[in-house]
Design a protein that fits this description.
The chain has helices at residues 22-25, 28-38, 59-67, 80-84, 102-111, 116-138, 145-148, 154-162, 169-180, 188-212, 218-224, 234-265, 267-274, 280-291, 322-325, 360-377; strands spanning 3-4, 10-11, 41-44, 53-56, 72-73, 142-144, 226-227, 230-231, 296-301, 305-307, 310-312, 317-321, 378-383, 388-389, 398-400, 402-407. Mean pLDDT is 92; it is low at 1-5 and 7-13. It has a single domain, classed as Cytochrome P450 (Cytochrome p450, Orthogonal Bundle). It is globular. The chain is built from 16 helices and 16 strands. The protein binds protoporphyrin IX containing FE. Residues 74, 78, 95-96, 107, 158, 243-244, 247-248, 251-252, 255, 293-294, 297, 349-351, 355, 357-359, 362-363 line the site of protoporphyrin IX containing FE. Protoporphyrin IX containing FE (HEM) is lined by residues 74, 78, 95-96, 107, 158, 243-244, 247-248, 251-252, 255, 293-294, 297, 349-351, 355, 357-359, 362-363. It comes from Streptomyces diastatochromogenes. One of its GO terms (molecular function) is steroid hydroxylase activity. Belongs to the cytochrome P450 family. InterPro entries: Cyt_P450, Cyt_P450_B, Cyt_P450_CS, Cyt_P450_sf.
């Protein structure tokens, strides 16, 4: 069934993209394939007193939206849920949800958090941690990869980056998990809001402490720097540290879990990696594409313009779907088949343009560390139960992944 939408635009057979259960109950890849064929840019109708929004599905259109900072603003929010609720309270203060010229100044500061000096030490620790975790679990036989491994890598890495005290890390992980997604459907949204506030408050306290007694860490660096001729307010410091936490935890965690799931589904690819016939860096890129943890990002139109033959009006919400772009068969042949040697692989998992992920190098390093540890210690990887999907219309991934590892030494 096709319907008529805003301005007479054709719409694809409907799935509610605002519902966290939609892509648990429906196959996203079949849906997006149909959307790209039938109406690659369409108007998603409003529901439950929330506005409608544009959905952009084709690779080229998604790429052009990411780059179009003159016509598409991030300052009202960059995630659908927040945009539909009327905007992000962090707009204009936090990197991901601000526009030029402020965004550019702030980004230059935030990039210092990822200087080779800071990153080198953090990457060394992540390599050690990954190796330790994988050596331990490979002796266990059966276990939940999400709980025993994936949960411990990204969050600890960001905490290392921010020098978060060890005793606070467990609580931060709990809040972080609640803030973006929920493994249970009920009460997800309220919990998410509360968790987000808790994180910001915690980081504000830390920002106060470090501003008065700065150390050699990233929070101190952000807390004592000047951006566009003035120091950041405690709220701005907290929000920008928070963006590293949330940006860096969930998406890296989902990628790690999906990567191991991919190995259970494509044992020949795993064997190639294990035997060293597949390059680790090439494999990292394909796993990032295959997993695509951030399903969409969004903007608000600043003026009228056209995309994919549709007329967008000033003020409209525009969402672009990485899950669809990364599986666009005009760019990636047999996109759902994991091909760890795939080249070129210009996936949009980290976005594109001025907001391209500042943590991309760290995200890649974490996944690489995991792969290296797996290759070193593990021989066989098998599924050992039903993986549990998370409920979210933003994050794609799993909250639990029961697997059985056979250690290399067993061979
Ligand atoms: C931005 C994905 C890891 C922090 C982004 C964007 C994407 C993305 C798609 C662009 C958002 C937009 O255009 O609105 C991912 C994925 C990751 C990952 C898939 C892991 C696999 C990280 C890590 C950190 C981080 C490790 C920090 C430690 C950020 C921040 C931004 C961002 C602060 C905002 C950049 C800006 O607006 O200029 N990320 N990210 N991300 N990411 Fe990541």
């Amino acid at each position: 069934m096709t319907m008529r939408g805003k301005g007479g635009s054709r719409m694809s057979p409907s799935l509610d993209l605002t519902d966290p259960a939609t892509f648990v109950r429906n196959d996203p890849y079949a849906f997006w394939h149909r959307v790209r064929q039938e109406s690659p840019v369409y108007w998603h109708p409003s529901a439950a007193e929330r506005p409608g929004f544009w959905v952009v599905a084709g690779y080229d259109d998604v790429l052009s939206c990411y780059g179009d900072w003159k016509r598409l603003s991030s300052a009202h929010g960059n995630v659908l849920d927040v945009l539909l609720r009327g905007g992000d309270s962090a707009g204009g203060k936090m990197l991901a949800v601000s526009d030029r010229p402020w965004h550019r100044h702030l980004r230059n500061l935030m990039l210092r958090a990822f200087s080779p000096r800071v990153l080198g030490e953090v990457v060394r620790k992540v390599e050690e941690r990954a190796q330790e975790l994988i050596s331990t679990v490979s002796e266990l036989g059966s276990f939940d990869f999400a709980a025993e491994v994936a949960e411990h890598i990204p969050m600890n890495t960001i905490c290392d980056l921010l020098s978060i005290p060890a005793q606070d890390r467990k609580q931060l992980l709990l809040w972080s998990k609640e803030a973006l997604a929920s493994e249970h459907q009920e009460g997800a949204r309220l919990d998410a809001l509360e968790a987000r506030n808790e994180i910001v408050l915690y980081l504000m306290e830390l920002a106060f402490e470090r501003r008065s007694k700065p150390g050699d860490d990233v929070i101190s660096m952000i807390a004592t720097a000047e951006v566009d001729g003035r120091p950041l307010t405690p709220e701005e410091i907290a929000l920008n540290c928070y963006s590293l936490l949330l940006g860096g935890d969930e998406s890296s965690r989902m990628t790690a879990i999906s990567s191991v799931l991919a190995f259970t589904r494509y044992p020949d690819q795993w064997r190639g990696l294990r035997e060293g016939t597949i390059d680790l860096d090439t494999a990292v890129e394909e796993l990032l594409r295959w997993a695509t943890p951030g399903m969409h990002f969004g903007r608000t139109a600043l003026c009228d313009f056209s995309v994919g033959g549709q007329r967008v009006r000033a003020g409209d919400i525009v969402t672009f779907w990485n899950t669809s772009a990364n599986n666009d068969e005009t760019v990636f042949s047999a996109p759902r088949a994991l091909d760890l040697s795939r080249r070129p692989n210009k996936h949009l998992t980290f976005g594109h343009g001025p907001h391209f992920c500042v943590g991309a190098a760290l995200g890649r390093a974490e996944l690489r560390a995991l792969l290296r540890a797996l290759v070193t210690s593990v021989r066989d990887i098998e599924l050992d139960g039903e993986p549990q999907r998370i409920y979210s219309n933003f994050l794609y991934g799993y909250g639990s992944l029961p697997v059985a590892f056979r250690p290399r030494s067993a061979s």
